[in-house]
Design a protein that fits this description.
Layout (H helix, E strand, L loop, with lengths): L6 H7 L4 H16 L4 E2 L1 H11 L3 H8 L5 H12 L10 E2 L1 H12 L10 H10 L4 H8 L4 H16 L4 H10 L6
Helix pairs in contact: 2-3, 3-5, 3-7, 4-7, 5-8, 6-7, 7-9
């Protein structure tokens, strides 16, 4: 799943959950299919959204991010110029900063990096279009961290009626 990446990138991706790795692979496919020379934070956000199953998506759903987020990211990617000569896209400096921020967003140094950490990395690195789009949709680092904490706590929380309601509405999309 990580073929085509440099040895350094493969070592970094080994610290990722399978879902987070998939988001990076989908981001790479987005950049490649559009003829973009580098993989940008916007590609990563689209990879997370295309996967649709990671904790980052659940956080966005819990924050009631509008459905227009995907359309806005699609618009951004469509407007970015493609290259006339096909080449293998590499990670942009902005994406490297996002991945570094994701690495630093782990709860403990030995934890793997999940899609929630990728989302926090996107939110931490201001200046990218992905960051701007997320903020415009009402997502900020504090809100995302709060929801992530709720998810983590619900995994270890005692079974109560309130916890079951939270888990059912947040994780399994059951309506109240």
């Amino acid at each position: 799943m990580v073929e085509g990446f440099t040895a350094r990138a493969r070592r970094m991706l080994e610290r990722f959950t399978p879902r987070a790795r998939r988001a990076v692979v989908l981001a790479t496919e987005e950049a490649r299919s559009r003829g973009h020379e580098s993989i940008e934070p916007e590609h990563l956000l689209m990879g997370i959204l295309r996967d649709g199953e990671g904790m980052a998506v659940k956080v966005l759903e819990r924050l009631q991010v509008p459905e227009t987020l995907r359309a806005e990211v699609e618009r951004l990617l469509s407007e970015a110029p493609g290259s006339s000569t096909p080449s293998e896209p590499g990670f942009s400096p902005e994406l490297k900063a996002v991945l570094q921020a994701a690495l630093e967003a782990r709860l403990q140094p030995n934890h793997v990096i999940g899609t929630e950490n990728l989302l926090l990395g996107l939110l931490a690195c201001e200046g990218s279009e992905a960051n701007r789009v997320l903020h415009a949709a009402g997502v900020n680092v504090d809100a995302a961290r709060s929801v992530i904490s709720l998810f983590y706590n619900s995994m270890a929380a005692p079974i109560t009626a309130e916890n079951l309601r939270f888990i059912a509405t947040s994780k399994w999309r059951v309506q109240r």
